[in-house]
Write a structure and sequence with these properties.
Elements (H helix, E strand, L loop, with lengths): L7 H10 L2 H7 L11 H5 L5 H9 L9 H19 L22 H4 L6 H13 L4 H14 L4 H11 L5 H12 L11 H7 L15 H9 L8 H4 L11 E2 L4 H4 L7 H15 L3 E5 L14 E7 H6 L2 E2 H11 L6 E4 L1 H10 L3 E5 L6 H8 L5 E3 L15 H8 L2
Parallel strand pairs: 2-3, 2-6, 3-5, 6-7
Antiparallel strand pairs: 1-4
Flavin-adenine dinucleotide binds next to helix 3, helix 5, helix 8, helix 9 and helix 10.
Length: 402
Amino acid sequence: MTGFEPTPEALLARLDAVDPAAYARSRNALDGAVTRLSPYLTHGLLDVPDALAAIRAHHHVPVSHKLAFEFGWREFFRHAWRHLGDGILVDVKPPPWPGAYASALPADILEGRTGVPVIDLAVRELHATGWLHNHARMWVASYVVHLRKVHWRAGADWMHAHLLDGDLGANHLSWQWVAATYSAKPYVFDAGNVARYAPRDWHSPGTAVDRSYEALDAIARGEPDLGPEPAAVRGEVSGVMPPAVHAEPPADALAGLRTTDEAGWVAQAVAACAAAGDARVRIVHPWSLGGARGREPAVRMGLLHAPYHSRFPWSARRWAFVLGAMRGRIEVLHAGDARRALDALVDAGLVPVVRDALVPGWREAIEAVRRRAVVVEPVPREWADPDRYCASFTRFWNVVAR
Ligand SMILES: Cc1cc2nc3c(=O)[nH]c(=O)nc-3n(C[C@H](O)[C@H](O)[C@H](O)COP(=O)(O)OP(=O)(O)OC[C@H]3O[C@@H](n4cnc5c(N)ncnc54)[C@H](O)[C@@H]3O)c2cc1C
């Protein structure tokens, strides 16, 4: 099971396959027993409490278990994002190197032709599948920021665009964690670490990562800027062009979905609610693709906040995943301004039911309409979100997992 289908059946199969004991033994290895639940969690097809409950129906997973701990990381990043807001998109603290990091990813990295096998294979896998093992994400981020001196934000935006689970909180703060703008020290890795956790073709002896940890740490904090890898300069590795990213849904992904402007969208909602005898409208947005919970509204309308997608475009694969989950569930889809669209529904006498979201644009839209006749559903959490900001995972975990 390698692909990701946005269906309840595929999600159930993934949950059934979770093996917590094997996870605890092998999660750091690229072929380890990780769950691959992340695209479903990011897009609200699954929540952390549901995931843990489903797994605990068959396995003993106390709060001290490695798997619970990793779900805790997801909730921590959400906690930090709630407190820092768009502050997660800029350096939380100064980087370890005072020089000027590049603002764009070089072509040899984007095309997977640096000549460093661990980087090239990871980049190609991300582009080909929309998913990457946590360790591979860390290796790529470390190489980009510390060895190639590219600002973490350029790498984070690129990875976010291609990941099916792309989540600004987890992604951008993880990049900052690697970059040491959100952690105490730069994360560096050596060729031995790759040899221990990755298959043979990923091993990278004799490349820029084949140095001592002392040397790698010194490079992360200062000179030298290594520049492109020799193999890339000599053109010894052929590259693969990265997939395009799209600010609007590609036509293929929209197949079978009806789209409309704001006026048509509101008119459709009014008509459907009148027919159903229920003024409530479920707003199905990209972070709210899950099934019914409790007394669900009869009418479901799809909504995209277009300015977010212009700022953070997605790969066609990500669009296909998200719109695939909407297909068959919604009356019509509207791509416009979330705040205006929600206001227009309330003005028309309807009651939007919308799941909370922290992404830029949605967060402001939901805050703005919260005081109107709108039902805002919190994202379910396994551990109650502390009111006071915990600036590190350790502090957060000490509070929530007591
Ligand atoms: C540079 C970088 C970028 C990342 N970008 C994202 C992202 O955009 N979206 C995202 O969901 N995760 C991101 N992560 C965290 C982590 O890599 C993925 O959540 C994990 O690899 C997903 O695979 P899985 O579902 O098999 O995880 P598992 O190991 O099976 O863990 C189960 C669940 O726990 C959560 N989880 C596990 N590890 C982490 C972690 N380190 N941080 C936060 N949550 C975690 C995820 O929700 C995951 O689905 C990033 C990590 C790094 C280092």
